Amino acid sequence: MASVVFLRGVNVGGHKTFKPSAFVKELAHLDAVNVGAAGTFVVRKSIGKEKLRAEILRRLPFAPEIMICPASDLLQLAAEDFQDELAGKDVRRFITILAKRPGKLPRLPIREPDSDQWQVKVVAVSALFALSLWRRIGKRLIYPNEVVEKHFAIPATTRNWNTISALCEILRTP
């Protein structure tokens, strides 16, 4: 079964930098495909989570937090109705991948700030994924990852819905 890998906090602000396109060449034996510069990969070859984690850590010059999920979980998420949830020109969809399943879910939706002028609105949780909406209001920008980590108390990493769509297209292509 294929897996999807999300690295947390890499290639941001000059810290934990690497070249994802070169990195996937080192994982060619796993039929790895890079998506973007944020440390997001599809691994088409079936490999256990811990073995895959070890492969990644052995090849990077730093030890990032790694979230690995089965491809089927991501494809199932994409099939859900989130795409239409309050979608609009000024609203962007994000998926936050949690390091582990939350024990107890906070009350949803979560709004930051908690008003009609929210910038981040966490609307649902499905398996290891927190689904959120983001809009730019005011000067201080709030990013979905900080809201999810604050309310769930679990390390996480966030990707735009466009990245999730690109991953699903790769997974659907033989």
Question: Can you describe this structure?
Answer:
The chain has 174 residues and is an alpha+beta fold. It folds into 2 domains: 71 residues, Alpha-Beta Plaits, CATH 3.30.70; 82 residues. Helix content is 28%, strand content 27%. The protein is built from 5 helices and 9 strands. It has a 5-stranded antiparallel sheet with strand order 6-7-8-5-9. Strands 2-3-1-4 form a 4-stranded antiparallel sheet, with helices on both faces. β2 and β3 form a beta hairpin. α3 crosses α5.
**Lateral arrangement of strands in the main beta sheet:** 6-7-8-5-9
| Contiguous uncertain segments of 5+ residues | none
Distance between the termini: 13 Å
Radius of gyration, in angstroms, nearest whole number: 16 Å
Compact description:
With about 170 residues, the chain is of the alpha+beta class.
Tags for this model:
27% strand; 2 domains; alpha+beta; Alpha-Beta Plaits; 9 strands
How is this fold's topology laid out?
Blueprint: E1 3-8, H1 20-26, E2 32-34, E3 40-43, H2 49-59, E4 65-70, H3 71-79, E5 92-98, E6 110-112, E7 120-126, E8 129-134, H4 144-152, E9 156-160, H5 161-172
Antiparallel strand pairs: 1-3, 1-4, 2-3, 5-8, 5-9, 6-7, 7-8
